[in-house]
User: Fold this.
Amino acid sequence: MPTTTMPTIPALASALTGVEDEIRKLATSSTVPIVNSFSGRITAAGGKRLRSVVMLAGSLALSGEIPDKAVTAAACVELLHAGSLVHDDLMDNAVERRGVPTVNAEWGPGPAVLVGDFMLARASQAALESISPYAAGKLAAAVTDLVEGQVLEVLDLYDVHRSPDSALRSVALKTGALFRVGCVLAAHCAAASDEVATRLSEYGAHFGLLFQILDDLLDLTSSVERLGKPVGNDIRQGVYTFPLLRSLTEEQRELLAARGGTWEDGELAGLLAGLRAGGMVAETVAYCRSLAEQTARALPEVPESEALGILRQLPVAYLEWAVSQIS
Ligand code: FPP
Ligand code: MG
Assistant:
């Protein structure tokens, strides 16, 4: 979702600029210049900054302002996210993300572990020094969730009998957890009550699930131009995702089992076309629509505001944007 098409308000737009500045500062704070060059380049390539939008709008909705600590918290979450993607790209053997060569492709696998580690550690350190020990602890707990979600995915690789629930469990940990912790930190910076914090964190967990399921759907249905990577990458990597697992026919399951990780381009294109012609898109979009409504319903009961309106609209707006990316 390009930032320009997102609903926004001036305080949010200016805080997002602050987040970018803080990310740049943290990502380039190593005493070793080459680490800064990789970490800085990866984070400068951007991304949707959806986690930040949710956190900053959450902060505004809860306290009517966006304190500096909330800006730092959003930068920490984005840096942690970017660091996890450095590791993810290494695991996927990916050569490019967001138009930028991956660290593993350009510098090698060992250094990619180190650059990712630097980004993760720098985010935790900033949370400890500039927010609070509570915030640093929550971020560290989210890292363990991300790792566990990723490990669960690895355990299920190439398993054509992976259940949709197993895929959901992994997604809730590998993606839901970071959206959730972002909301926990936004509530913490706004000194919200436990009840409000719990509701906002549920909003984040649902949003993360929605985001990743749509990401997985686009991997199966978008175009190489829009994705910036080949369509069907997950299937080639043996990652059988929730949208796929829910709508596979027996014949398609047998084809997956027979091909494993070795696909002729035309045959994979045929499978993807078959999935699109079947019920996968409609079923996943219906599931996501209900999830988007559930996400909005989780919002805490706080006084009505423009920021609360953004949080309420964002899940469906993101769903509509993702649907527009289907080819
Ligand atoms: C991207 O998903 C990957 C994640 C959301 C989680 C990555 C987590 C790890 C590599 C565990 C280690 C992390 C830390 C914090 C130490 P995807 O692969 O579905 O998305 P993609 O298509 O953009 O690659
Ligand atoms: Mg990946």
User: Anything to note?
Assistant: The mean pLDDT is 96. The domain at 8-324 is CATH 1.10.600.10 (Farnesyl Diphosphate Synthase). The chain has 16 helices and two strands. Residues 240 and 291 are 20 Å apart (CA to CA).
